[in-house]
């Protein structure tokens, strides 16, 4: 099958490599808006199944199209390719404002089934383990999730000129770019957001938003707090509080704290003993991205449509951010 990709560097390059690697893909046509870039890439290309173009029409009527361009261009490209019979793999976010959300929400079921929005956490070991734990229902009722994802990118000399440092749109900030993955995951398990608040801050004093605190309540009476920062040492953990246990996902291990009734010799509450519940693989996002691409190609090969439930769930995550109370205000 023939696949087109909009975008050629960064995350787009990862998608390109995975498409080229897939044995079911016979041709990958990459669209670059700049004619000179497309020409240079063509001259230096050593991959037989890869082609580069600056003519968007070259990507029309292929089996599938991958949209991995700027966030603000996603819906525009979706409109273009919905006119053909091309299946669409679109990177998150689905949309960046209310008009775009309404356009997607009002699409026919036939059109919705053509589109796969990539939130690849749902193809990860993390998703599978949380899903299994919740289905087992042996730790009581979940009621709070605490997420902490940090590293020191803001102190990199190149960060000021990086697109992640822009303030033009909430989806360009760490809250929209990174946070939407976790919002999407939590909404999948705990229902729609009842309300959401996003607090942005600059910790590195570089006049950019390098840190976000996101607070959300969900339909299933679960609350969450999400700390995201480019201005701190590396951390990556998710803690789910149940009525009878605490479960922590930290790198390649899942830790269990229980039972609830744990006392010291004086009869006072103390923290339960920490135990390793399970070990899981590292580099979850790299593996899950490959799983997402393989899923898209497999569904395409078998001429199956994509889930409308997943479509609606994925555009909802954009709506949650669009309707959030954001401080300080941003577009």
Walkthrough of the structure:
This protein has 331 residues and is α/β, with parallel strands linked by helices. The chain is 31% helix and 26% strand. The chain contains ten helices and 15 strands. The protein has helices at residues 11-21, 35-43, 74-82, 98-105, 109-112, 125-136, 174-177, 179-190, 284-301, 308-322, and strands spanning 2-6, 27-31, 50-53, 64-67, 87-91, 115-118, 142-150, 193-201, 211-218, 223-229, 235-242, 246-250, 253-257, 274-279, 325-327. Strands 14-13-12-11-7-10-9-8-15 form a nine-stranded mixed beta sheet. A six-stranded parallel beta sheet has the order 3-2-1-4-5-6, sandwiched between helices. Helix 4 packs antiparallel against helix 10 (308-322) and helix 8 (179-190) crosses helix 10 (308-322). It is globular. The model has no long low-confidence stretch (mean pLDDT 93).
Number of strands: 15
- Can you count the helices? 10
Seen as an oligomer or otherwise, the chain set is single chain
- In order across it, which strands form the biggest sheet? 14-13-12-11-7-10-9-8-15
- N-C termini distance: 40 Å
Low-confidence region ranges:
none
CA radius of gyration is 21 Å
SSE string: EHEHEEHEHHEHEHHEEEEEEEHHE
Beta-strand fraction estimate: 25-35%
Question: Share of helix among residues?
Answer: 25-40%
Categorize the overall geometry: globular
Report the average pLDDT across residues.
93
Structural class: alpha/beta
Biggest β-sheet description: 9 strands, mixed
